[in-house]
Amino acid sequence: MSTLILHQTHHTLSDFDGISNYLLENLKGDGLHLFPELFLTGYPLQDLCLQRAFIDSYQDHFKKIDQWLKSLPTTNKWRALVPGLHYELEENLLPQKIENVVFEAVPGLGLRKIYTKRLLPNYDIFDEQKYFTPGSGNCFYDFQGSLLAVHICEDMWASSFHQMDPCELMFGEMNEKNLSVKMLINLSASPFDDRKKKKRFERAKSISLKFKCPFLYLNRVGGEDEILFDGSSFIVSGDNVALAMKSFEKEIQSVQIEKLAGRYEHEPIFLEENTWEGLFSPRLDQTKRPAELETWTEEECADILKALQFGLQEYAVKSGFKKFLVALSGGLDSALVLAIVKLSLRPGQDVEAVYMPSIHSAILSTQLCEEMCARLKIPLRHLPIKFLHSTVKNTFTQTFPDKFDGLVDENVQSRLRGTLLYTRSNQTGAMVINTSNKSELAVGYSTQYGDSVGALSLLGDLYKTEVYLLARYINTKFHEPIPLGIIKRGPSAELRQNQLDQDSLPPYSRLDPMLEGILSYRYGKHELLGLGFDEEEIMKTLNLYLKSEYKRAQFCPILKIKAKSFGFGYRIPISKNLNYHLS
Q1: With CB atoms 3.0 to 4.6 Å apart as the test, which of 33, 61, 260, 358 could cross-link to 80 if both were Cys?
Q2: Distance between CA atoms of 24 and 41, rounded to whole angstroms?
Q3: Separation CA 31–CA 214 (nearest Å)
Q4: Do the domains 3-261+269-276 and 296-505+551-577 sit in the same CATH topology, yes or no?
Q5: What is the CA radius of gyration of the chain?
C-alpha cells in the first residue's frame, strides 16, 4: 500500500540549520513525506527573501540538502515533496525571478522542482505578487502507482482576485487525458482566524466531491509576529473527515491512500465564493435592529484562547523573554490579559502584576486586583501615582499659564503609568503586555505612550463585548481566576471622578457592531443607518475612528485572530481628507 507521512511542522523563519536537521532526521522509511508550503524557509518572508545574506544562506542550505540526498543509496523506498523557493539570479546575484515551488526529494538524485504556485494572494496580509512569479501548469505526481494532484495553498481558493481557477484547470486536464487521480494534495501556510477552520473544511469537501477522491490539506504551525499559523491539517473524503490533526502543535501522521474510502454521491456545493466580501464579511446578526455582533460558541472561545496563548509564547520565546509584566487596574481588560498570561506560562517563566492607583481609583479596584492576584498566586506590586501626578501638575502650573485639566490631566496619569511600567520592565527584563482592546483601538480611546504601551497586544483583535465572552469562558473552564466583581462593574479608565466609558462612547453593544461593519471595508454611514443604528452615534463613531489613525500607526503588534484586523493587514494613510467617509 502507498503510505503518506504528513509533517505538520513548526520552525522559526530562516532557521536553516533546524530545517535541514529535521529533514536529515525524519526522511526515512517507506512512503511519501509531505511538508507545508515554503518549508525550506518559513512563511511569510516579506523583504527577507530579497536580502543578499538571506539568499546566500538559503542557497547554501539548499545545496547541503541536495548533496545529502545524492549521497544516499537509490534503494531507499521513500520520496518527499518539499516546498521551498526557487531563485533565478542575475549576473550580480540579485534575484531576477523567485518562485514558490514544490521540490521532489529523491534519494540518490537530489531535489527537483515539480510545481510552481499559480495563484499569488495579494490582499490583506498577503503581498506575494510583489515577490513571486506565478506558475503556469498543473502537477500530477505518480507515487508507487498512485497518481496524486499537487498544488499550494491559495491554489485551492478560486476567487474574484484571480483570473484562473487551478482546481478547474486541473479537473479539465484530468478529463481531457482521462487521468484517474487518487488524491488531491494542498501544501499550505495558511494563517489562523476565528472562521478559517470551518471555511477550509467546506472548501475541501466541495473539491473532494467534485474530483471524487480524498483531499489532503497540510498546514504549518508558527507565530510570525502578529500572524498565527494553526496547523489543523486534515484529510476529507467527500463528506467524511478521515483525519484531523492538532491545532497549534507540531505533529506527524501516517495514512495509507488505499484506506481513505469516501462517498461522493453528493454534488459539490460551494457555499461562499472566495471574494473580498466572503473573506471579510462582518460578523453581524443582521436580523436584529440595530444589528448585533455575533457571539462566539464555546468551541470558538477555546480556539481563540489557544491562539492567544500560542501567539504570546511564540513572540516571547523568539524575542528572548522569560518574564511578563501586566498593569492591573481593577478593570476587565487587564484582568483578562493577566489570566491569559498566567494560563500560558511554561516552566522557567513568571509574570508580575503592577497596580498604579491614582487619586481617582476606587477602593474596590484595589480590592479586586488583590483578590485576582491571590487567586492566581501572582505577586502584585503597588505603585501609587498620586504624588507623581501632583508633582507634574504643580510643575506645569508654575511654568505654563495654560490650564492643567480635562484631557491634559487625564492623559498625564496614563503616561506616568506607562513610564513606571517600563521602568519596572528595565529592572527585571520583563516583556510588557498591552491591555487595550479592539474597540478602544478603533476609536482612539487610549492615551498614546500611556495605556497603549506594550510589546504585544493580546486583545487588540477582540471587541469589548468579546472580552466579556472570553473572560466568562475562562472563568467557566479554569475555576474563576477573574473575580466576578471585575466582570460585573462598569468599564472605566478611572482618570477622573466617577468616569465611565459610556460617558464618552456609545454602549459597546452598539459600538462594536458598528465598528465591525466599518472595519470590513464595506459599511459607511448609509449602510449602518440601514442596519438600524442611530445617525448621531454613527457619526460620532466614524469621527472617532477616522481621527485615530495616528494612534493605530504607533501601536504595538496585535495577535491577529480574525480575517480583518488592525496591524499588518490594515494599511491606511494617516494624512488624508476625512470627508470621504462622512458624507
Answers
A1: 33
A2: 16
A3: 18
A4: no
A5: 26
Question: pLDDT band at 161, cuts 50/70/90?
Answer: confident
What integer pLDDT is reported at residue 174 of this predicted model? 94
Query: What confidence score (pLDDT) does residue 555 get?
Result: 96
CATH of domain 3-261+269-276: 3.60.110.10
Does an H or E element contain 114, and which? Answer: strand 110-116
Res 269: pLDDT: 63
CA pair distance 37, 41, nearest whole angstrom: 9
Which residue's C-alpha cell is 523568539?
Answer: 318
Residues 279/563, Cβ–Cβ less than 8 Å:
yes
Mean pLDDT of 211-223: 96
In the block, cell 478602544 appears at: 440
Whether pLDDT at 287 is above 50: yes
- pTM of the predicted model as reported, rounded to 2 decimal places: 0.94
Task: Give the β-pairing of 183-188 and 146-152.
Answer: parallel
pLDDT tens, 51-71? 999 999 999 999 999 999 999
The answer to whether 491 touches 501, Cβ cutoff 8 Å, is yes
Kind of pairing between the strands at 79-89 and 183-188 = unpaired
* Number of C-beta neighbours around residue 389 at 10 A: 18
Residue 342 confidence class, pLDDT cut points 50, 70, 90: very high
Residues 6 or more apart from 580 whose CB is under 8 A from it? none
The pLDDT value recorded for residue 271 is 47
Range 164-192 average pLDDT: 95
Q: Could you state, in order of their start, the residue ranges of all structural domains in the chain?
A: 3-261+269-276, 296-505+551-577, 506-546
Cell of 515: 465598528
Closest CA to 101 of 88, 90, 85: 85
Give the phi and the psi of residue 290 in degrees, each rounded to 5: -70, 165
CATH of domain 296-505+551-577: 3.40.50.620
Cell numbers 507521512 correspond to what residue? 5
d(CA 147, CA 141): 6
Query: What per-residue confidence (pLDDT) applies to 93?
Result: 74
**3-state class (DSSP) for residue 322:** coil
The grid coordinates listed for 255 are 495514512
Q: How far is CA 565 from CA 334, 438, 439, 442, 540, in A?
A: 20, 9, 12, 10, 21
Placement of cell 487588540 in the chain: 460
Judging by DSSP bridges, how do beta strands 227-230 and 221-224 pair with one another?
Answer: antiparallel
- Bridge partners of 229? 191, 222
Distance CA 170, CA 174 (A): 6
How far apart (Å, rounded) are the C-alpha atoms in residues 513 and 506?
Answer: 11
